[in-house]
Structures are given as structure tokens and as C-alpha cells.
Amino acid sequence: MFVGREHELVELQGALKVNRLVTLTGVAGVGKTRLARQLVDLGLVAAAEDACWADLWQLRDDGLLAALVADACSLSDHTPRMPVDVICEWIGDRELLLVLDSCEHVLPACRSLVKVLLAKCPQLRIVATSRELFHLDGEFVFVVQPLPCTTDAAELFLRRATESGHVPEPGDLNQVTELCTYLDGLPLALELAAGALRHCSIEDLLRRPRHELSRGEDEVRPLAPRRHDVLRTALGWSHELCTPAERLLWARLSIVHGHFDEAVAVALCSGGPLSAFDVGHALAGLVDKSVVTRRRGRCLLLDTVREYGRLWLAELGELDAMASTHASYFLTQARRADATWTSAEQTGWYRTIKEAHPDLCAALDHLLDHDVDAALELATLTGFYWTCCGHAHTAQLYLSRTLNACDRQGPMRQRAVWALGLTYLLQGNHVTGTHLARQCLESARVTGDATALLRAAYLQAMSDLLQGNPRPSLELLEHALRNADVHSADRGDEPARQAVMMCRMLRLFALTGLGELEESRRSAMALRAECVAMGEHWIRSYADYQMCVIALRAQDSELSLKYARSMLHAKQQIGDTFGIALGLDMLAAAFSANGNGLSAALASGAGQRLWDAVGHPQRGAPDVAPLREAGEERARRLVGAGTYESYRSEASHADPGEMLAWAAGGEPPL
Hints:
Elements: H1 6-18, E1 21-25, H2 32-41, E2 51-55, H3 65-72, H4 83-91, E3 96-101, H5 107-120, E4 124-130, E5 139-143, H6 149-163, H7 173-182, H8 187-196, H9 202-207, H10 223-241, H11 244-253, H12 262-269, H13 276-288, E6 293-295, E7 298-300, H14 303-315, H15 319-339, H16 346-355, H17 357-370, H18 372-388, H19 392-405, H20 411-426, H21 430-447, H22 450-466, H23 470-482, H24 486-490, H25 494-513, H26 517-534, H27 538-553, H28 557-574, H29 577-593, H30 597-614, H31 625-639, H32 641-653, H33 656-663
Parallel strand pairs: 1-4, 1-5, 2-3, 3-4
Antiparallel strand pairs: 6-7
Helix pairs in contact: 3-4, 4-5, 6-7, 6-8, 8-10, 11-13, 11-14, 12-13, 15-17, 15-18, 17-18, 18-19, 18-20, 19-20, 20-21, 20-22, 21-22, 22-23, 22-25, 23-25, 25-26, 25-27, 26-27, 27-28, 27-29, 28-29, 29-30, 29-31, 30-31, 30-32, 30-33, 31-32
């Protein structure tokens, strides 16, 4: 909810016209984040597609700061570069607004990052919210003040109370003003107080203990500490008015780093005096009291509220136990995701793991300190998802750390080495990736593990294909598939099924690369049919990709368009930026083959924006490059080079979401 601040918004808009770094500072709960959000939502500084928002409150420390900012910029880098370099290169000379929200707990690292970004990205503007300043040259400091007590503060309180169904009587308006004055017009304190009206009156609130706020007139205290106490008082009121179950749930929920829903709350927080039913009931009460914020069907503890709950969790002596419960829960989630990877649940798990990123990192950090075997398993099971969804650096970081920390040999370690090798190959580091692939092959041959051998063959074959060597790739894959324990896959052994299907998928690439198009087409259709029956999307999308390539080579333009769009649809279901970029290239080639040069230019431009985000030096397998180049040349001839480049440039700067909607069959946004 946003009330007032019209003058502040105008002032900030003006400040950002002449200053590239604006820091919104002020005490906790004063509304820094909401003011920055309103600035972005109203488009006062930049269009929606040119504004990036990084929620730094998710970070436990500064280790993943640059990776989180890269993710906020929609970067899905697949190169070995450091994240800071990736961000700088991607932004370049673009006019972009970057919001860094809640910088204070990672301030030194944030200061260094901001300094580099401002130096290397001349058109970048940064809005930061922080309780402390950066103290950088050129920093414009904007102190966010509380809301005026008799006007905006009272309006916010009344609107929040009305939403909660507890509207004060007309005769209470004087007390509303008194309460707003007492709470110093702090928005978060006002919302908490409004939520408390379910259990007490405004008069009751005014009579409650003031937590050391009553001081003699001659006692001089800085204003910020007083306002800090005001917020603590409002939090204390909310806490006192909570039922015992709500208090315990508040404390236990403080272990969660990101968004959550009721199912997560039940799984993490039930136990002891809290039954599953109690958790659901208590969660509703915390939402009603404005302790838990609900946004688009998901719940969240604001960082100040979380800090308060964490203090109580420590007081209860449950901090370590809850951290272990939290880590165990997310390890179980990763196991479930892996166990159903080739099913219709696949797309849901991609979304879940993407949204749970801060909690998965927190779980890994905890397990690295307490159970390195479990840490290795969690890093391995999430590594593939992260690598495919733009967190390759995070996957590589945790896989390396857990492999170094855990010296136990066995299937999980073999799989972790495989997952690490995959991150290197997809980043274009063929030397290290190939070294790890050969290590996997040697280990699998020693142990005789058929599933591990399939994965190792997949990794080595991918290395061969990316370097333009389809023949050894095909031979290795066919040998591994002949010797695979296919009966294990048929009996429901999910790891074996995954490995078999992935090798079959890569075999299509090798066949197509060798020109064996009919065999590749038959195999692709069979594999695709199985994926459709299972509800699987990742492997299916690459079967579609190969069908598109085969259709282009066979000059079947309509079929190429059908499979290019099918691939894009599947890739969008799982959020695979690299795959979407590849699909847009295929769509451009298909449009060109159909004689539609303008649409080819649009698809190519939309793809270029995503390739910039991916940062990959090579667009797919080398044998596909001639198809893309031939398509571009034909499209230029169809519409003229100038028109082609004009449309392509416009598409590369258009909103990616709108362009993808058009690519799926909608109207062009340009």
C-alpha cells in the first residue's frame, strides 16, 4: 500500500536526472523500499523493461552479491567470466536503472560493486536503499522522512485498518492522530498497529508499555534511535497481541529467506505445540496483523520483521534446530525434484527451485558446516537446474566447495563431478569440462555403474559436439546405450531413465551433424512422443530443435516453423534463457525459409537480446551456424539490408516478454 510522498517522488525524479547514484536512507520501517518501488512502478525514471530490481535482503553474506544482481538484470550468463564483468559488459552504454534494495548488511561489497558499475557503465543510474550511506563521490543522499502524522500517516493507518475489517469509529479520529504521532509516522509501525486492531482498540494501544520511550524533557536522545525504538515498540505490540501459536510461528518463519506459502510453513514450522492445523490458523492471524506480507499469493517476512522473529527464535533456543529443519526440507525438495524429473512435474520443479534460490543457498551454507555429505547431495541435485536456469556460477561455486569439503567416494560424488563438468562445458570452458568428462568416464568404468557411464558418455559427447566432432560423439553414445541397464529405467529407476533419455537426445545432435537426417528424424519423433506422454519439456524441446533443423535442411519451411515454435513453448515453461535464445534463432531461420523477412528480423533481434544476457560465444552446435547465416542472408535479400537491420535493432530493444508472446503466435509489438 502506498500513500502520499508526491513531493518526494518529484524530488527523486529530478535528482536522478543529474545524479547517477541516489541513496534512500532512513531508519527501518520508514518506507525506503516502498518509495523506490513507487518510483519504478510509475515509470518516473525508466520504462519497466529498463529497470532492474535486486532484493539484497535475501543475502546471508556478500558471497553471492554480484550473482544476485546479475539475476536481477535478467542475465543468465553461460560463460566463465566473473559476474561483475558480465554485468558491466551487458549493461555497457545502455540507459538502465538498477535498484539495490537493503544494502546495509552487505555494505562494503555493495559499495565496491556500485563503484565499478558506475565507472564502466556511463548511462547506468543506481537507486539504493540503505540504513547506511556508501560515502562515494557523486552520491546523492535522500533521507526518507516519516509520513506527516495528521495527514498521510492517518490515511495509511485508516486504509490499512479498513482492509483488515476493523474500521475505527468517527469518534476515534483524534486518537488516530495521537497514535500516528506516537508512532512517529513510520509506515511499517502504522501497518502493524492497524493489524493489531483485531484484538484491541486504539485506546488500548496508547496505554500499552512504551518500551523506554518515556523520558524526561531534559533528556536529549538522537531522533533515529528513538524511531528505532518506536518500530521495536510496534513490533512488540504485535508480538504481545499474537497468540502463543502465532508467536512461535513468527519465530520459526524467520528461518526462511525468501517467499513461502502455507505448505512450506507447515512443513518447516509444525512440531511440538504447533500442529499442521495450528500453523495454517496462525499464519492467517499473522497476515491479518500485518506481520506476514502476502503478495500475489505468496508470503514474505519483511527484513525488519524477520530480524525480530530471529531474536525470539534464538531466545527460544531453536535457532540451530530450525536451521537444520530448513536445510533438511530443501534437501528433501531437491530429492523429489530429481525423482520426478522426466514427469509432468518437471516444469513446476523448475519454478520452485528458481524461486527457492536464496533458501537453497542458505541450506547449502548450513550443510557445509554441519553435514558435508548432505551438502554434496544438495549441490548435485540442484546443480543441473541452476545451470539450465541462469545460475551456472552459483552451481559451479557450490559444487566445487562441496567436492572439496567431502572426500567420500561413491555414486553421488561421481554425479557431482559430472554436474560440475556440465557447468564448465556450458560456459564454453571445453578444456576443464573435457577433463572432468574423462574423469567421469574412468570412474564409471572402474565401478561398473551403468547410469554413471551414461552420464559420463553424455558429458564427453557434448564436449565433442561443441567442438565440431559428431562422429566420436555418436560412437560413444551408442556404445553407452547398448550397454545401459535399460531394464532399470523401465522399472522406474529415475536416474537411469534420465541418463538414457539424455543420451538419446544427444544422439540426435550427432546424427544430424553427420547428415544422417532420416535416422535422426525417426529417433527424434520417437523420443518426442515419449516426452509428450510423460509431460516432460526439457528433452522434448531439444527433440523439437532437431526436428526444426532437419526440416530446414529438407526445405520443409512450414514444418520448421511448427517445431521452432514448439521448442520455444517448451523452453519458456522451464525458463531456460539459453534454450529460448536458441529457439528464436531457429524461428528466424524458419521465417526466412517461409519468405517472411520482416518476421525473421524480429525473431533474430529478440534472440540477440537474450544472447547478450547469456553471453555465450557460440550459438548451439557448430553445424547449425550455416543454417542461421543462410537464413539471415535470405531475409536481407527479401526486405533489403537496411529494413532488416532496422527491424532487428528495434526488436533487440523491445520488451522481451512482448517479443516472446509474439513469437508464440501473437501480434508483433512493433
